[in-house]
Design brief:
single chain, 191 residues, two-stranded antiparallel sheet, 2 strands, 0% helix, elongated
Length: 191
């Protein structure tokens, strides 16, 4: 197919109005012993998108049903990204009461774990911030809602000559920089 210009190598097209459950294209590696067989591999040698998914109706774009217990459901492997983003979710400008991302767990296990972990592992990466939140609207940039009898915020710091908490360039005039309150009784500090 080396003479292709605007054509394609293959096209699978269906315009059936039938509502029966079916897969228009189905690829299955059925034998459990074929552990080195990849069901589908896409190789893109041009500097262009390797796979494009266009969901043209009010449905889920990608569903992943995985039976893995110790393996990742999604993994980005050996990214060569330098100034770009490994993962970017952008232009979510139609949002009203929805969210860009949601992480939810209802596991009853009492095993020690972190639901979300961000790690900057290199001690030499002194210019890398582990998490940055930018809020341009006049509303809280971060809310911690602790609904049980536990710490709302805990900071473990190995700093010796640096501050553990620093509030910088506060523009408060008549408001308080720190406001600690409880049901009508509160203490404010502006220093």
């Amino acid at each position: 197919a080396n003479a292709l210009t605007t054509g394609g190598v293959a096209e699978f097209h269906s315009n059936s109005p039938d509502t029966g459950t079916r897969s228009v294209v189905h690829i299955q590696n059925d034998h459990t012993s074929a552990v080195n067989a990849t069901a589908l591999k896409v190789v893109q040698d041009a500097a262009e998108t390797a796979m494009f998914l266009d969901q043209g109706a009010d449905g889920i774009g990608i569903d992943i049903d995985t039976e893995s217990t110790t393996k990742h459901a999604i993994r980005v492997l050996d990214a060569k990204t330098t100034t770009g983003k490994v993962i970017e979710i952008g232009e979510c400008d139609a949002l009203t009461t929805g969210n860009i991302a949601k992480f939810y767990s209802n596991s009853v296990s009492d095993g020690s774990r972190d639901l979300v972990t961000i790690t900057n592992n290199s001690t030499s990466a002194t210019g890398a911030k582990a998490l940055k939140i930018i809020q341009n609207a006049a509303v809280a940039a971060m809310i911690i809602d602790q609904n049980a009898n536990g710490l709302g915020l805990k900071i473990e710091s190995a700093a010796t000559t640096s501050e553990v908490i620093k509030i910088q360039d506060a523009a408060s005039t008549t408001g308080a920089i720190i406001n600690i309150g409880k049901e009508g009784a509160q203490h404010s500090a502006n220093r």
